[in-house]
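Narrative summary of target 7.
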Amino acid sequence: MRSLPLPLALTARLLPVVVLASAGWALTTGPLAATPTAAEDKSPQKPTESSSAPSTSAATKTYAAAPAPCDSVADKTIKSLVPGAKTAGQEIASTDKSVRRTCSWNALKGFDYRWLDVSYEVKESDAAAEKSYKERVADKSGGGAVPGVGDSGYSVVNLTTEDKQQTREGVVIVRASNALVLITYNGSDFESKKAPSADVINKGAISAAKEAVAALEKK
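Modeled conformation, tokenized:
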């Protein structure tokens, strides 16, 4: 048999290799390559955000609105703290009742005068309420903590004298979550020109504060 020239012989020997190589490329990386299964595909996937995932962008508000301040203190407490006053009280006009409401009781019985204010302020967050609470406490130094009421409680009593007439005023500030409860209670005796004792005013203001906070927590 006649032997093929060298170039043709080499081509004949390499042809099966080329065919097999081409077939291998088509099966592995070419158009005939199989799509990898989920188990075989180990490449990292970018996580997708679930539309049902809860949003944490908005701060949760425990209290969305202030309660009715004139209903926040029991009638018997009003009669004790402000003798002669109408228990219904008088709500002070507010530009936004959802965030700020105040009720006042005042009366002069004989020569003895008393005044009580109960106010609520609702802030956007606990942090905002805490900031306001600290600012108010700093503005009325000289008092002390009131335990067992809200998240933080503070009371202070001051005595003022004008034209020889004494007036003693107690202020209680309470923070409960994102709300502030503010109590002002004062008194004077127009016959003796003296004021009630610090203990009477302080205890009266604290008792009103506890009832006002309880009314807020029920809302």
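The CA atoms of residues 70 and 137 lie 25 Å apart.
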